[in-house]
Task: structure prediction
Amino acid sequence: MTQRASGPAAGATYVFAVTRTLDPAVVADLGGMSAGEPVRTLPLGSLVGVVQSVPAHDFTDEAWQQRLSDPHDLERCARAHNEVVSASAAYGPVIPLPLATLYLSDTRARQALESEADRFHAVLRRIAHHAEWGVKVYSSPAPPPAGADRPVPSADRGRPAPGAGLAYLERKRGLQQRREQCLEQSLRIAEEVDAELGKLATAARRLRTHGRRPSDAQGSQVLNATYLVAEQRAQEFAELTRALRGRTEARIELSGPWVPYSFISEV
Amino acid sequence: MTGEPVPWDTPGPLSGPIGVPLVDLLDRVLATGVVVSGDLVIAIADVPLVRVSLHALLSSVSERVPAPWPDGGPL
Result:
């Protein structure tokens, strides 16, 4: 950090989440972002922050860049953050703050967060008794080679080796067409799945689809959507997902229940 | 407020704090959330996931440097 203005203590306050109420014991035993200091609650007027004191020098811009560039560190941070956020939901709705939300002190955190109290309350009302469910749809696996069932064309303009190159091109073209049809069909399925699930959801969002990994032989992702679903509809939502899986024969993955990460910035 | 516990940490078929797929977790932990102050978009290698702009955040809450925006946040 370039500014060491905060004195010899050089502590920072990492904020995981904001909620209405929380028994500190629920989060006290969690590791959080940094060993040494416990995860604790910070009163914010009518709200409570879930925070941890961390050494400022471990949480500078440079330290974060380094940490988040390392897949293991990134995973550790993301899971630690989510663990605290998820535990904080024990007594009611919780607003997760993004990974790496830091203030130089509890006082600064309180100032910044209390000024947002109205917005936080509006968000908490919106997400109360709701959970987020993620749904991903994948395109069908690549179609089988089209060569076998294609007749080799007969002699072409009287050349001596008739049609070999043309047949090859046609096979290639056929394969490409099938791939495109396959993808189109998968996209149609994705739209259908999204429309059906959206009817049961209070809100829906499309997330960026994940790039295809070389190890992924299962086809590419055509839908990465997430839904805000009322508690009493969660079972129905899961059942509908299963039904859609059976009806469309597509690979459909369901994840959840999540703290509604994706539905708190819209109020 | 509700006193009813919500089973976030109940290990369901595809959930649970440890069992959650990392890529789905990153979708949520990095890309969403209430941004209170500071701009959090990270670029990891060439994958534009999120770029942490903590420097501005930490500077803005330093006693020596006034916050670059009024009311503590861009939202």
Q: What stands out?
A: Chain A touches chain B through 73 residues (CB under 8 Å).
